[in-house]
Amino acid sequence: MNWGMKNRISRIIKPKTGRCVMLAVDHGYFQGPTTGLANLGKTVEPLLPYADALMITRGALRNWIDPAVDIPIILRVSGGQSILKELSNEVITTNIDDAIRINASAITCSVYVGGEHEKETIGNLSKLVDEGEKYGIPVLAVTAVGKEMARDARYLGLASRICVEMGAHIIKTYYTEDFGKVVEACGNVPVVIAGGKKLAEMEALQMAYNAVSDGAIGVDMGRNIFQSDSPVGMIQAVRAIVHEGKSADEAYGIYEQSKK
Ligand code: R5P
After folding, report:
1. Which DSSP symbol is given to 47?
2. How many CA atoms lie within 13 A of 9 on its CB side?
3. pTM for the structure as a whole
4. 172 counts as catalytic
5. Is 176 a residue whose pLDDT tops 80?
6. Distance CA 10, CA 59 (A)
């Protein structure tokens, strides 16, 4: 791995703990103004001090984020579909020149294994890896799960391993029972979990705890943070699990305390 690639990964995955709390706010690229992100800037601003990286599109970044901000950017560079149509129908929406102009620390796209456009989305990832390798920019692959797919270790292991084989540098997938098998399928490639739909805070914290206990290096969480009744308390709680090894109960205490 070249120096630039290693350096960018070290900005995202903190060398001190080998762990990472990514804040995902890229949902609008196919969901529009998702609950909590209509005014993205207002939502994100208080969370930035507690996030290790921000996952976002170039349009949202230029609209709502101050360029003076000191946080590594994981730039969402795929899209082209909406919640009104087939979700796997993604193309690459942002070229590598713009990612470099933005000073992205990583680029990301979704891969729909088993989806109608499986081949194209695997092709998108491969092209990003070719470009990322050329310029030292790591690629985070998101295993996006179609409605018809089971979110079990067998499926998520299959999808994650395909992303690894295509050369992805970080894998983002979902937590499931037997998650250790998914992590094992990824070899030395670090794995983070998405939060998914909003859960009760304790449930989301337990999921984050289980994921890191089973080998994930952290989370790339969105709705379970910014749709919480205490987004700052929630990201602090997630951070305590990921970086300080706190239990879900201890982290829940941090979240509860934030509301007082
Ligand atoms: C989905 O494809 C997007 O990358 C989301 O940003 C991602 O799923 C993480 O957000 P959440 O924790 O809300 O699922």
Report:
1. G
2. 22
3. 0.96
4. yes
5. yes
6. 25
Question: How many angstroms separate the alpha carbon of residue 257 from the centre of ligand 1?
Answer: 26
- CA distances (Å), origin 157, targets 141, 170, 172, 177, 217: 13, 14, 11, 12, 16
Mutating to test ligand 1, I would choose from 23, 142, 145 the residue with most ligand atoms within 8 A of its C-beta, which is 142
pLDDT above 80 (res 147): no
> Would you say the CB of residue 142 lies under 6 angstroms from ligand 1?
yes
pLDDT at 125 (0 to 100): 98
Residue 55 CA: which ligand 1 atom is closest? 6
Closest CA to 75 of 24, 31, 3, 129: 24
Q: Is 121 in the pocket of ligand 1 (CB under 6 A)?
A: no
Domain 3-258 belongs to what topology? Answer: TIM Barrel (3.20.20)
Reading the block at residue 149, the tokens are 């797919």
**DSSP tag of 45:** G
In this prediction, residues 160-181 reach a mean pLDDT of 98
Q: If we measure between CA atoms, which residue out of 47, 62, 170 comes closest to residue 106?
A: 170
Answer yes or no: is pLDDT of 165 > 90. Answer: yes
